[in-house]
């Protein structure tokens, strides 16, 4: 077994300053820029992730960050108020942009959106 002290994940963004404004200003995460120009995010619950600049950044084609919320309708309203547009993968979302998985026994209620670098994020209610 691997002896560890800490673990974290990370993903690339095209512009660190733009990412900092989004992840702190829109999503409300605690964000700090370290000496290497990498953003350290403290996520709800205490987990951490890093966002690193990449000149040839290509957005992930999968969800890089899931954000669990108590009330998905309230979270979607907050995102809309902040100017965030939801994505409708597969055409299954309702008029609010939420895929209602709970009501059909197919997982959580979930809504997807993009960060300024085009990475896929979600809010979900389990």
From TrEMBL:
UniProt xrefs under PROSITE patterns: VOC (PS51819)
Q: Taxonomically, which superkingdom?
A: Bacteria
Which SUPFAM superfamilies does the record match to this protein? Answer: Glyoxalase/Bleomycin resistance protein/Dihydroxybiphenyl dioxygenase
* InterPro entries in UniProt: Glyas_Bleomycin-R_OHBP_Dase, Glyas_Fos-R_dOase_dom, VOC_core
Domain VOC spans what residues?
A: 4-126
Query: Which Pfam families did the record assign?
Result: Glyoxalase
The name this protein carries in UniProt is VOC domain-containing protein
To which species is this protein native?
Frondihabitans sucicola
């Amino acid at each position: 077994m691997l002896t560890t002290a800490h673990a974290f994940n990370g993903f690339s963004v095209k512009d660190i300053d733009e990412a900092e404004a989004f992840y702190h200003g829109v999503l409300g995460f605690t964000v700090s820029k370290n000496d290497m120009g990498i953003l350290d995010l403290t996520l709800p619950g205490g987990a951490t992730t890093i966002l690193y600049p990449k000149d040839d950044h290509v957005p992930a084609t999968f969800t890089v960050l899931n954000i669990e919320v108590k009330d998905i309708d309230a979270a979607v309203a907050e995102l809309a108020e902040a100017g965030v547009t939801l994505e409708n993968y597969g055409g299954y979302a309702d008029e609010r942009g939420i895929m209602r998985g709970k009501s059909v026994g197919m997982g959580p209620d979930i809504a997807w959106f993009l960060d300024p670098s085009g990475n896929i994020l979600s809010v979900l209610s389990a």
